[in-house]
Amino acid sequence: MLTHAFTYIQAHMITIGMVQQKGGVGKTVIATNLATSFQKRGYEVALVDADPQGSARDWAAKAENPPMTVGVDRPVVHKQLPKLKGFDIAIVDGPGKLERMTVSIIKASDLCLIPVQPAAIDLWAVGTVIDHIQTRQDLTEGRPQARFVISRAITGSTLTGSIEEVLDEAPFGRLSAGTYQRVAYTRAVGNGEGVVSGNDSKAAAEINAITDELESILKLKTHA
Ligand SMILES: Nc1ncnc2c1ncn2[C@@H]1O[C@H](COP(=O)(O)OP(=O)(O)OP(=O)(O)O)[C@@H](O)[C@H]1O
Ligand SMILES: [Mg+2]
Fold first, then answer.
1. What is the whole-number distance in angstroms between the Cα of residue 33 and the centre of ligand 1?
2. Which residues touch 207 (CB under 8 Å, ≥6 apart)?
C-alpha cells in the first residue's frame, strides 16, 4: 500500500469510467496510464476491468506494483463498486462495443471519459454513448459528468483541430489535454507499465496533464 501524500476530503470513492462503443480508441491505454499516474500521486487506486477481453487485467499481471485490479464480466459494475472500500479512485475500463456493460459503467461513474481519435469515423460512433449518458444525467440531475478526450492525435495533422471544433458543439466538454500517437504508449501497455514512469517525457507530460485536469474537475486534491 502506498502512503498517502495528501489528505483527501472526499468521503466516497470517485469513479472514472472509460466508455466508447468503438473498439481500439485508447480506453485501456488511458485507463492503465491514469491508474499509474494517480497511484504515483499517492491516491489509493482500484482498476476495474469491465471488458471481458481482460486487457487491463493482462496489463496488471505484468506490472511490478499494479493498483488493485479486479475484473467484472457481467453488467453489475454499478452494484459491485459501492462494495469496494478503502480506495480514493476507481478507474473502470470498458468494452469496445455498446452493451449493457456500458450502461452499468455509466451508472457507476462520477465522470465518464470518452476517448475519440481524430477521425470522422470515430465521431460518428459517439452519438449513442452521448445519448446514454444524457439519459442517465436526466434521471440523476447530472451524474455522471462526462468529457471527451482526444486520443492518438497525429502531430502536425489538421484533423485534430477540425475534430476539436465538432466536439466543442457536443453536449459535454472536452479535456484540453489528450494523447498523441506515440510508441511509448503501446510499449507501456504491453509491458505492464505507465508512461509517467517511462523515458518518453512527452507521453508522461500528456498523462500528467490529463491527471491534472481530472483532479481539478473532480476537486480531488486537497493538501493537508
Ligand atoms: N496514444 C497512443 N499512441 C500509440 N498507440 C496507442 C495510443 N493509444 C492507444 N494505442 C494503441 O492502439 C491500440 C488500441 O488501444 P486500446 O487497447 O487502449 O484501445 P481500447 O479502446 O481499449 O480497445 P478495445 O475496445 O479493443 O478494448 C493498442 O494497440 C494501443 O497500444
Ligand atoms: Mg480496451
1. 12
2. 33, 34, 36, 37, 179, 194, 195, 196
What separation in Å is there between the alpha carbon of 81 and the centre of ligand 1? 25
pTM: 0.94
Mean pLDDT of the chain: 92
Whether ligand 1 lies within 6 angstroms of the CB of 189 is answered as yes
> If you classify domain 14-217 with CATH, what class do you get?
alpha beta
Domain ranges of the chain: 14-217
Backbone angles phi, psi at 115, to 5 degrees: -70, 135
Residue 8 has pLDDT above 80, yes or no: no
